Amino acid sequence: MFTGMRALLMCLVTFGLFLSTPALAGDVDDLKASYEKAVKAYNSHDDAMFGTVHESTVYYAPNAPFPIKGKAAYQKTIKVIWAAMEHTDFKPINPQFQVNGSTGIISGHYALAMKLKDGPMRTLFGRFTATCTKSEGKWLVISSHYSEIPSGN
């Protein structure tokens, strides 16, 4: 009986190792670098940002009642936002990066300083989560959610 229990325990341990694939040494650094590149591209209204987005991405935007689904719809939405902006400065506040296998999660708070072409400079504060997948050695955002923190909080 002891041998049978040992075999069962070894099977469970081995199975568990396959279920939870830990991050490889450089994966968190790669995820962070990819995110920083996307933030820089967003702030400069550079289409290079769309290279960090998965084809089937889902984007939950602040103040939007429904998700934006797919890379094409995401690109269109961001380009409309950029067209309305004279200045954009998205700054993540203490972002956290986690990797498990080919899944990466980025979360934190942000400050968004922006000036609409026909409006005053404003700064919004919010929180965000982005889920990424590593595909062909490249981190791509598959889902992201940004929500504004109500003023006074």
Structure description:
With 153 residues, the chain is an alpha+beta fold. The chain has helices at 2-19, 27-43, 71-84, and strands at residues 53-60, 68-69, 85-100, 103-116, 121-135, 138-148. Strands 2-1-6-5-4-3 form a 6-stranded mixed beta sheet. It is globular, with a radius of gyration of 20 Å.
Which terms would index this structure?
globular; six-stranded mixed β-sheet; alpha+beta; 3 helices; disordered N terminus; single chain; 32% helix; 153 residues
How would you spell out the order of helices and strands?
A: HHEEHEEEE
Tell me the overall shape.
globular
Q: What is the terminal separation in angstroms?
A: 60 Å
Mean pLDDT: 85
Radius of gyration: 20 Å
* Tally of individual helices: 3
Strand order in the sheet with the most strands: 2-1-6-5-4-3
* Percent in helix: 25-40%
Question: How many strand elements?
Answer: 6
Largest sheet: 6 strands, mixed
**Percentage of β-strand residues:** 35-45%
Structural class: alpha+beta
Stretches where pLDDT is under 50 for at least 5 consecutive residues are 1-21
SSE topology sketch:
Elements: H1 2-19, H2 27-43, E1 53-60, E2 68-69, H3 71-84, E3 85-100, E4 103-116, E5 121-135, E6 138-148
Parallel strand pairs: 1-6
Antiparallel strand pairs: 1-2, 3-4, 4-5, 5-6
In short:
The chain is an alpha+beta fold. The protein contains 3 helices and 6 strands, in the order H-H-E-E-H-E-E-E-E. It is globular and about 45 Å long.
